[in-house]
Amino acid sequence: MTLTATPSAEAARALDAELYERMLLIRRFEERLLDEFSKGRLFGTTHAYIGQEANAVGLFDVADAGDIAFSNHRCHGHYLAYGGDIHALAAELMGKATGVCGGRGGSQHICFRNFYSNGVQGGIVPVASGIALAEKLKQSGRVTIVFLGDGTLGEGVVYESLNIASLWQLPILFVLENNRYAQTTPIRLNLAGDIAARFEAFGIDTTTLDTTDVLQVRDAAARALQHVRERPAPAALVLGTHRLCAHSKGDDTRDAAELAASRAFDPLAIHGPRLGDAQRARAEDSVRSALNDAFERAIADPFPLAESLGETPRRAR
Amino acid sequence: MTATAPAPTTVLASLNGALHSLMERSGDVYVIGEDVLDPYGGAFKVTKGLSTRFPARVLTTPISEAAIVGTATGMALRGLRPIAEIMFGDFLMLAADQLVNHAAKFRWMYNEQASVPLVVRTPVGGRRGYGPTHSQTLEKMFLGVPGLRVVAPNALANPGALLTAAVADDDDPVLFIEHKLLYAQPLLEPGRGSLSEFQSTVHGERYPTHTLRMAGARAADVTIACYGYAFEIVREAALSLLLEDELFVEIVLFTQLSPFELDPLSASLARTGKLVVVEEGGLTLGWGAEVVARMTESSAAPVRARRVAARDLPIANARTLEDATLPQVADVRAAALSLAGREVG
Description:
The complex is a heterodimer of chains A (317) and B (345).
Chain A: H1 9-38, H2 53-62, E1 68-71, H3 76-82, H4 86-93, E2 111-112, E3 115-117, H5 124-137, E4 144-149, H6 156-167, E5 172-178, E6 181-182, E7 185-186, H7 195-201, E8 205-209, H8 214-230, E9 235-240, H9 256-262, H10 267-271, H11 277-300
Parallel strand pairs in A: 1-3, 1-4, 4-5, 5-9, 8-9
Antiparallel strand pairs in A: 2-3, 6-7
Helix pairs in contact in A: 1-2, 1-3, 1-11, 2-3, 2-8, 4-11, 5-6
Chain B: H1 11-25, E1 29-33, H2 50-53, E2 58-60, H3 65-77, E3 81-85, H4 96-103, H5 106-109, E4 119-124, E5 149-151, H6 159-169, E6 174-179, E7 198-203, E8 209-214, E9 222-227, H7 230-245, E10 249-254, E11 256-258, H8 263-272, E12 274-282, H9 287-298, E13 304-310, H10 319-325, H11 329-339
Parallel strand pairs in B: 1-2, 1-3, 3-4, 4-6, 5-6, 9-10, 9-12, 12-13
Antiparallel strand pairs in B: 5-11, 7-8, 8-10
C-alpha cells in the first residue's frame, strides 16, 4: 500500500493502465455473461456489476493479499477485482463441475481463497464481523472487507453487527455501494435518514464518496484500510455509484432519462481518457483473449453428475 | 475447578465441567453469548466460572441473537471453535437465518472449501411457568436442515461428553438443545438408583443412542422412542407400566435428532412392532412424526404407532394450563396401553 510516496509519472501510467484493464475485465465479463444468458448457456439468475467497477477495482488494488472479503449477491466484480480465477467463475455460473464451487453455489455463493459470498441480504455482515474477530484474536493483521448495498440497510442484523464491530473494535471495513436502488425500488421509497449517520452513530469512522473515478475510490479505500489495519478499528466507506444494467437480467424499470444521465458516471469513460488509444485497444485485446479462453473452456467443461451429490469432494485447502 | 474435582453429579455440573475442560484444552474454544460473564455465569449458570478462568475467551454480547450466531459462524469459518449460547431456545427464531442460510450452508455450498465447527447451545422447554415465549421446544424447526446437526443431551448419556464431542470432534454446526429441567437432574446410570430396573445397550459413539430394557424381563410389548427431558417422563411411565400393568417396554433414547439415524429403533421395533414417540415440542410436524413415518416406510412388518407431544397451543403461564398442554407421564402410559390393546385406566 502506497499512501505517502508520490508515484513517478511512469508508475502512475502503469497503474492507470492496470486499473483500466481490471475494470474492463469486469465490464466485459458481465456483458459476456448476459450474452451467454440470452443464448441459454447459463442457468438461474445473476446480478451484474456494470457501472460499479471502480469500487471493487479501486478497493482491491490497495488491499493486502491476505485480506478477507465477504461479498453479496452482486459479487462477480468483487471476485474478479480480488483476483478470482475467471474460468472458475464462468464455469460456476454455467453450473459446471469445474466451477469455483463445483456448481453447487452459482452466481451468489462463491468461495475462493479468502473470498466468500452469500446471497441473503444483511446476513453476511455478522459473519464478516466474526471473521474479523477471529483474525483480531489470531493477531493475523488481516482486514475483513464486507460489501453492503443501500438496500441492505433495511436488514436489522446489519445494525447488530455495526454495534458489535465498534464495541469490540474489529478490523473490518464496511463498503457500502449506494446505487440508489434496492432491486427496483428507489432509495426515496425505502430509506429514511442518512447513510453515513448510521455508521457514525456507532462510532465508526466513515468516509462518503460520490465519485466513480477509480483513482479517488482507490485513495479513499487506502486511507480507510490503513485506519482499520493500524488502529485496529472498523471503518465504513460509503460509495455513491451507478448501476448501468438491470438489477438482475430483464428487470430494469428505471426511467430512460435517468439511465442516460447515469451513463455520464461510467467509470470506464471517466478513467479511459487517462490512457492512450493504443493502451485502451491493448486492454480490450488482452481482456477479450482472457475471457474467450475462460468461457470456451467453461462451455466445454462437464456438468457435475447427479451421482456426485452424495459424495464429499476433496477439501481444497 | 481443579484436576481433583469430584465427578459431576448433575447435568448442569457435567455441562459446566465439559466447558471448563474444553477451554482448558484448546485456546481455540470461545464462549459467546448474553450475560455469560461471572458472577452471573449465564441465565442457567452453564457458563459459570469460565470468564474468571479464561477472561479473554468468554465474550459477553449485546442482545443480538442473529449477530451472536453470525459472529460465531465467522469465527468458526476462520478455524476457531466457538460455542454460542442463546439464552432461551425461543430466541433461536431470531438467529434462524444465520443457522439455516449461513452456518449450515457454507461447507456444502462452498464445495468443502470451508467448514463451520460451531456449537449453538440453548436451554429449551417448559414446566417452569415462563409462559408463551420462554418455554417452547422449537427444535423441530431445525430438524432436517441439511448441514445442521441437532443434538440433545439427557440425564443418562453423559451430557458433558456429548457437548465435548460437538465442540471438539464435530466440524459441522451443531444445535445443542438443553432442557431447562435437566440442569438440576442427577446423572443416571443404568442398573443403579432410579434406573436400577433397567439395563442399557449403547449404539453409536459420538452421539450415542441408548436402548433400555427392563432387567431380566420377557420380550418387550412396546417400544418408546424419546430424547432429552422426555426421557424423565418416559422412564417414570415405563416403571409404572411395569408395576401397575405388567406391560414391558423398551426405551430407545436418542441424542442425535437430526440427521435422523434410527437403526437401534428399527431393531427394537422388529421385536415389538409397536411404537410410542414422545417429545415436548408441539405434535404437528414434530420429531415423532418423522420417526413414525420413517419406521413405517422401512419396517418389513406393520408398525403401529402413537405420538405423545405438546398440544399445538402456546404454552400458558398458569401451571394448570401448562400441565394440560405439555405431555405428561399419564399420556405416555395411555399411548402404550392403547397400543398394547389394554383398557386405559
